[in-house]
Structures are given as structure tokens and as C-alpha cells.
Amino acid sequence: MALACSAIANNGVIMKPYLVKEVRKPGGKEIRVTESSTWLTATGPEVAALVKEGMINAVNWGTATTAAIRGVKVAGKTGTAETKTDRQPNSLPHAWFVGFAPAHDPKVVVAVIVEKSGPGSRVAAPVARDVMAAYLRSEK
User: Fold this and answer.
1) Which of 46, 68, 107, 133 is least crowded, fewest Cβ atoms below 10 Å from its Cβ?
2) pLDDT tens readout for residues 20-37
3) By the 8 A CB rule, do 12 and 47 touch?
4) What is the CB-side half-sphere exposure of residue 133 using CA atoms within 13 A?
5) Pairwise CA distance, residues 112 & 123, whole Å
């Protein structure tokens, strides 16, 4: 979901994911640096812009308001996946949220799922907000 969301954040382009950005010696000398590269195009920029606006609206006026960060425009979408079965009729749903910030100059994409915890807007979105806020603070 984070990779799919990154396509929206990057105007329809998915960047090739990597685990290690750089490796340095204890003194700080670079041993290896991973360069960002385009992996594939998921959709056109027009479609990505439309979805991005919807995700911004979800955080500002919709179900994802608990993902809002003061002073930062966030884009995101909540989700609630039902888990009730005949054997577990009182089971809480899985909560999920996917989003990115800042919405028009993305620096971080986050996907959160919290099993059997309740609605995405109440459980997963605040977790994602805190992760995005911590990342943006660390960049300063």
C-alpha cells in the first residue's frame, strides 16, 4: 500500500524501493550511496492529481482528520476491514491508513495497519500522523 500511495505522491511515478540509502565508515566517509531511480509509471499525472486532492480532502474534512499535522498539508485515506465471523462475532475490525506529507512536496509515505483494533480513523491514522510528524521533525 505504501508503494501504491507513493505513485500518487509522485504524480503517477513509482520510485524503485530500496532498504539502505547509504553506508558510511565510522568517520563519516561514504562507502556506498543508493541513488533514487524510477521503477515504473503507474498512472498519468492527471489521475494522480485527482486522487491526491481526494486524499488531501479526506485529511482536512473527511474521515482522516486525525492524521492532520499542524502546519503541514497531509494527504491520506483511512480504512476499516471487517473481521467478524460466525466463530468471532464480536471481533474488532482491522484499522488501516495510508498517506504522505507534505502533500505537494512529499518527503514521507506511511502505511499503517493495526489488527483487530477498531476504525482506521480512530486507531491507524493517529499512528501514521505521529510517524510522519517525527520524520518531518528529524529532517529539520
Assistant:
1) 46
2) 888 989 998 988 888 877
3) yes
4) 12
5) 9
Given the C-alpha cell 486522487, which residue does it identify?
Answer: 51
Q: Residue 77: what pLDDT?
A: 98
CB atoms within 10 A of CB 130: 14
The full DSSP string for 40-86 is EE-S-HHHHHHHHHHHHHHHHHSTTGGG-BTTB--EEEEEEE----S
Main-chain phi, psi angles of 126, to 5 degrees: -65, -35
Phi and psi dihedrals of 76, rounded to 5?
-170, 170
The b-or-e profile of 77-93 (16+ CB within 10 A means b, else e) is: bbbbeeeeeeeeeeebb
Beta-bridge mates of residue 76: 99
Task: Please say if the pLDDT value at position 110 is more than 90.
Answer: yes
User: What are the pLDDT digits (tens) for 42-71?
Assistant: 688 999 999 999 999 999 999 999 999 999
DSSP SS3 for 126: helix
